[in-house]
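dumping this here before i forget
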Amino acid sequence: MAENNNTNENQNNTVEDEAQVQQELSEIIKIRHDKLKELQDTGRDPFKITSYDRDVLNKTIAENFEEYDGKVVNIAGRLMSRRDMGKANFIDVHDSTGRMQVYVRINDVGDDNFAEFKKWDIGDIIGVKGLVFRTRRGEISIHANEVTLLSKSLLPLPEKFHGLKDTEMRYRQRYVDLIVNPEVKDTFIKRSKIISSMRTFLEKQGYIEVETPVLGTIQGGATARPFVTHHNALNMDLFLRIATELNLKRLIVGGMEKVYEIGRIFRNEGIDIKHNPEFTTVELYEAFTDYNGMMRLTEQMISSIAQEVLGTMKVTYGGEEIDLTPPWRRLTMLDAVKEFCGLDFAAIHGDDEKAREAAKSVGIEVSADKGWGDALYAVFDEKVEEHLVQPTFILDYPVEVSPLTKRKPDMPELTERFEFFITRREMGNAYSELNDPIDQRERFLDQMKLREGGDAEAGMMDDDFVTALEYGMPPTGGLGIGIDRLVMLLTDSPSIRDVLLFPTMKNRD
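structure:
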């Protein structure tokens, strides 16, 4: 009984503390609004300032001190800290490149400017004109002779996320996250550099970047549940794309022999640390090569991106060192299942019942309507991925899970497809592309049967794509890589939400 009383008392204290915090916050906000009104009433409204003549960034001064020492500069940024010594203050001003210490003294900026400056709040946007120097402690600083309020912050910043430690709130208020958390900004700067490095690599290989529609009349190119929208003028439903594949391969038919697209993909599926309903991929297609060519390109591209952006091909993710140096391990799905599960699916090739029994022996139930290929894939998916820490290509997927892939000539139940895995997760997918229009139509029909049976993720018949293949598509290799997962790897980020500026979030009540 005493324990329950203690619990109730703790809950009451928590409620009272929260109420006190809200009251203090309301008082702070009121004071800031009052300060703004005073400025506006005296004709000094900071929101009427349209620009500021900043001539240098903080990082540029820090990295080139000898060039700027003793020179007058204009910087601008957010006021992030203040050390008040009466008639002189040291403040920190942060811009997009980092912090700069500023020395503000009443004798230098004047009585009126200093009196106004003393009323400014942490979070305000300010401009500083002054002389670059180094303090006695050796810190590069600016000795101000003029300070200007450029924008008023009406809400107080969380103090190093005191009161904003909730991870979900950081994702919802990314703007605050970026202001007070420099490593978050660094992640997104690296993301931009990763994508830029990828473009440079592909362009050097002769690839052309293209754009294809986000809205389409057919759900295809992948197995996934789509988002559906309605076009009023045409009075028709449209699908947000779940892949860029089919349109890019149309371009291969048209004679554009190396094409790629970096773009947003939309899938109406669950959300977890690896999945967001909208995400970014790169898909690329090259004529006259196959999945072996795509393997070579994959390991070369990702290792070169790591070297360019991070300065090394060895990265740390979740405390484990990952070596991206080519060549990466190549392992067929049959061999992977045999190595990690002790099951030899090659020995029972073609026997659906024995395949289901083999899967059941390692705890995986496969329904009676599923055959050898489905059982093989189910075992791999459930039992093997967890072992694939270092970069590994898994080759030769069953045709049942590869509707757009060319079959292996010596074993048509398998396809010339690979996925590559790093840190126990799939990072990308590649094919020797199916270019037989007759086979492609049959596979579309198989997908339609699944769809008629209630599988909302199954693809639709794309007659125009079959028509394109009938004009003739050369042997082609295709590759898709999840850029968000690649950024997670190269920035040691545990969740996809850590590498998306604005991840999809459920509405708050």
